[in-house]
């Protein structure tokens, strides 16, 4: 195993950038294409647990206006090998103070790099960090 081969990191970085752009534009077709197209894919959101590509696509279409705009604060990419990577990032919704977290497991198959698992959460305010 060779962690973080520079060529693989560059590929996954382009995919993660494409995801952020599609999310910001609420480009449903692009978002659908970036996720694994099958029953194996899982997305845990802030308020939902979604199993399968159809459930994820239906959730996106039912959400008025798409994902709230956000600033990415930090992104960390680890490529396990030429077929699997993990993208972790911290974000803050525009106008908000809470820190959000997103983790995605990307796999490369016949269709290219796709998200096989995703988890999005918002950190709870802690007394020592509350305004």
| Strand runs, count | 6
How would you write the strand order of the largest sheet? 2-1-6-5-4-3
In this structure, how is the largest beta sheet organized? 6 strands, mixed
The ordered string of helix (H) and strand (E) elements is HHEEHEEEE
Poorly predicted runs of 5 or more residues:
none
Classify the helix fraction into a percent range. Answer: 25-40%
Structure report:
The protein has 131 residues and is an alpha+beta fold. 28% of the residues lie in helices and 36% in strands. A six-stranded mixed β-sheet has the order 2-1-6-5-4-3, with helices on one face. The longest helix has 20 residues, at 6-25. It starts with 5 loop residues before the first helix and ends in a 9-residue tail after the last strand. The model has no long low-confidence stretch (mean pLDDT 94).
Provide tags for this entry:
alpha+beta; single chain; 28% helix; six-stranded mixed beta sheet; 131 residues
């Amino acid at each position: 195993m060779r962690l973080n081969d520079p060529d693989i990191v560059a590929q996954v970085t382009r995919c993660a950038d494409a995801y952020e752009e599609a999310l910001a534009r609420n480009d449903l077709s692009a978002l659908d294409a970036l996720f694994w197209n099958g029953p194996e894919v899982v997305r845990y959101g802030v308020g939902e647990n979604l199993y399968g590509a159809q459930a994820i696509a239906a959730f996106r279409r039912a959400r008025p206006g798409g994902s709230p705009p956000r600033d990415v604060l930090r992104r960390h990419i680890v490529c396990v090998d030429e077929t699997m990577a993990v993208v972790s990032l911290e974000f803050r919704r525009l106008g908000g103070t809470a820190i959000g977290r997103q983790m995605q497991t990307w796999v490369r198959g016949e269709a290219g790099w796709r998200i096989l698992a995703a988890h999005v959460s918002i950190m709870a305010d802690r007394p020592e960090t509350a305004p």
